[in-house]
């Protein structure tokens, strides 16, 4: 009997050692060795796992130990190649493709990823306001941008609907969908924020989406109506055109729309034949605008974001926007929308930026005025501005469950094409996408505008709250209807 007990114990010990030796087995972690930021994150999660993703080839075979993840560029002009993740190997995969295997939550996830930095403008800029040395704006060409090589998009377990949007720099940072919900993944950082040098066994935290609350939009104005004219002159409202291989930005669409309105107004004084011609012209205008729109975004991160994210801030902010851009490419939206980051502004000195406080309404108003002052002709132009802040924004002194705020239907208004989002981790991307939706004139999915007789409204991107039952990657029929009408 004693022999059997010892044999059983030995068997269990061997099994445990084998699991610990497995590179993608769940790992234990000591919180006293983690960065305080991630300790705080883990304390807020009701369910998470620690595991190590493994890079594999298309057949699922592990790569050599030195080609797992990319490293962020230390110097743009570095003579050596700092990207061991895509060093030549016996695999036939190219540098634009990557496959990873991850074991977590009792299942295996196989990632099939393709490089995708289309959400970053060819002439992307980073503006540092109030740095200790001096204010500066760094201009990056498509080849020079330090972080453009990081971003990938693809799917999980050969299911095209199970989207994955991941940065592969120094580990896997991003989100992915599965049959049982949405997951986030990020590499663990040590207490000194150093990257783990063990590329083959780099521990990550994987967790499911939580359920924060969103704030209703503040206005009900439609783009181009007389209800929200700001008194700006035509020159002040005119945007500099940015030509990308013949593609048109949202500002160009607005110019075309205004031109068509003027043409129809002139023909309105004619006879019945003229009226018929006007209707035909309107229909042709709708069809002519049924092409890809490029919405140029200025992303602004405040000083609280710097204090929280440190040197990883730019990488983190762009990772959020890569997720936002992917959400706007989901076919359920019914339109070709390209979210493109043209400028990332990092505010080191609060005096250089907008006044940000707990009051959500006031903060939004201040930010809208500030971003408009930065959108001068001849400078770096944007169609809309997004503020990401670590400030706890509130509807009132005792209601601080607000995560984002924007006005309804103001994307074409240069003064009020702006939104604010409170940073609470990677799920902030869903908040940003939601608030941008309000600018496109989309109401909440449970709004009276979206109710159908006898039909329970499903909750998608424009759901008033983000919970386990929400589908934050997809758009409701109501959202599709309102954005289509807005663009036409």
Automatic annotation (TrEMBL):
Basic and acidic residues compositional bias, start-end: 226-238
Gene Ontology biological-process annotations: proteolysis
Residues reported in the UniProt entry to bind Zn(2+): 434, 438, 444
Signal peptide start and end residues: 1-18
Keywords assigned by UniProt, alphabetized: Disulfide bond, Extracellular matrix, Glycoprotein, Hydrolase, Metal-binding, Metalloprotease, Protease, Secreted, Signal, Zinc
Catalytic residue list: 435
The name this protein goes by in its record: ADAM metallopeptidase with thrombospondin type 1 motif 9
Species annotation: Molossus molossus
